[in-house]
Amino acid sequence: MITDIKKSDNELIHLFTSGNESALDSLLERYKDKLFNTILFIVKDKYHAEDISQDVFIKIIETLKSGKYKEEGKFLPWAMRIAHNLCVDYFRKLKRFPFAKSSTDNEVLDTINCTEQNAEDKIINVQSVGKAKDLLEKLPEEQREVIILRHFANLSFKEIADMTGCSINTALGRMRYGLMNLRKLMTGK
């Protein structure tokens, strides 16, 4: 598996479709945290995020095994698009069955990796994440989505535009207005 680290996404996909199961493990290991954290930030529930993540992996595996994957060189944006669509499905189900409640809002803090921080740094980090999450919640959904995809999933504006079905300029505009609105919320002006 160590040699798989140096392989490109397309090489790992080709190895997997040729029967090398460990290639898929390497590929999913490469992106599982990024996918999970993005899903968690969108659905705000650790247990539902875990379920959706599993559904994303199942969909990825089924598509790769069936030979329907055609996104040469764009595995992560493709996987993020699957995750995004499954999150949308989750919210549609939630609207149809409103009795399904999320567990707790603080679980997003469980996923943050704090490496070698002292207690004060950890407290500041947790408080900052909590404030940022609260501020993001106050933004319109389209602005919040672009900010999450850009800053938490590290997607390009082209990838965000493709995923959300808007133009690059619209994605840029949503980011700009989202950041302006965040600044207003932070300063109170």
TrEMBL record:
CDD domains xref list: Sigma70_r4 (cd06171)
Keyword Transcription regulation applies: yes
Name the record gives this protein: Sigma-70 family RNA polymerase sigma factor
Presence of the UniProt keyword Manganese in the record: no
InterPro entries in alphabetical order: RNA_pol_sigma-70-like, RNA_pol_sigma-70_dom, RNA_pol_sigma70_r2, RNA_pol_sigma70_r4_t2, RNA_pol_sigma_r2, RNA_pol_sigma_r3/r4-like, WH-like_DNA-bd_sf
Record key words, sorted: Sigma factor, Transcription, Transcription regulation
Coiled coil: none
Xref: PANTHER family: RNA POLYMERASE ECF-TYPE SIGMA FACTO, RNA POLYMERASE SIGMA FACTOR
Pfam family name, one: Sigma70_r2
Occurrences of domain RNA polymerase sigma-70 region (ranges): 27-96
Residue span, RNA polymerase sigma factor 70 region 4 type domain: 134-170
